[in-house]
Design goal:
Elements: H1 2-28, H2 35-42, H3 46-52, H4 56-75, H5 85-103, H6 107-110, H7 113-119, H8 123-145, H9 155-166, H10 185-197
Helix pairs in contact: 1-2, 4-5, 4-8, 5-8, 5-9, 5-10, 8-9
């Protein structure tokens, strides 16, 4: 019982650290965020912080895993194979956008070249990223073959457009317009993806 309570407290602290790290990265970017500043933001000592995450790289890897775990819940859904390839792509896209809006996860930061290079040192994390990518590529191929996506579109371009839309909640911070709506943006992104790739959508 004591061990269980200790573990719950440890997990709560871990979640609090990750949330604070997400806020700091959103404010300053990955490179400018320091572990000292993070410890101060959470209100813990540096040894306590390092007992949870030994390095900044380990912290960012844990943030990436948070996003991927939500995506895996969609990829590995037992009923997913009963849905069409386009519907499954849309489920993935909607989940990715919603997670970022709800949890302020900086997907664009997580997939920046320096972050990806860092994650390459963690084979388990890279395997998870590659698994999701393989699903996206396969679903795009199936959607084209099944007539859900206009076959005149280039498959490689479609995959990259998918990822661009996936990262869309955090693009355009310097725009004069207000932040996107958490309620409406996922539906807007989905409609752009669905309508833009529909058969006979180009002249």
């Amino acid at each position: 019982m004591v061990s269980s309570l200790r573990e719950r407290r440890r997990q709560m602290l871990r979640d609090e650290i990750l949330e604070a790290a997400q806020s700091l990265i959103a404010e300053r970017g990955y490179a400018a965020m320091s572990m000292d500043e993070l410890a101060a933001r959470v209100g813990v000592s540096k040894p306590t912080l390092y007992s949870q995450f030994s390095t900044k790289e380990a912290l960012v890897a844990a943030m990436a895993i948070q996003v991927m775990e939500r995506l895996f819940s969609v990829v590995d859904d037992d009923g997913a194979t009963e849905r069409s390839p386009m519907d499954r792509l849309i489920d993935l896209l909607r989940t990715g956008v919603q997670v970022q809006l709800d949890e302020r996860v900086m997907a664009m930061q997580l997939w920046m070249p320096d972050i990806v290079h860092m994650l390459k040192g963690h084979q388990e994390h890279m395997n998870q990223i590659c698994k999701i990518d393989a699903v996206v590529v396969d679903l795009v191929s199936q959607a084209i073959s099944g007539g859900e996506i206009d076959p005149r579109f280039d498959q490689a371009s479609i995959v990259r457009v998918f990822y661009a839309l996936f990262m869309s909640p955090h693009i355009g911070y310097l725009s004069a317009i207000d932040a996107p709506s958490r309620e409406h943006m996922p539906d807007t992104v989905i409609e752009i993806f669905r309508r833009g790739l529909a058969p006979d959508s180009r002249p």
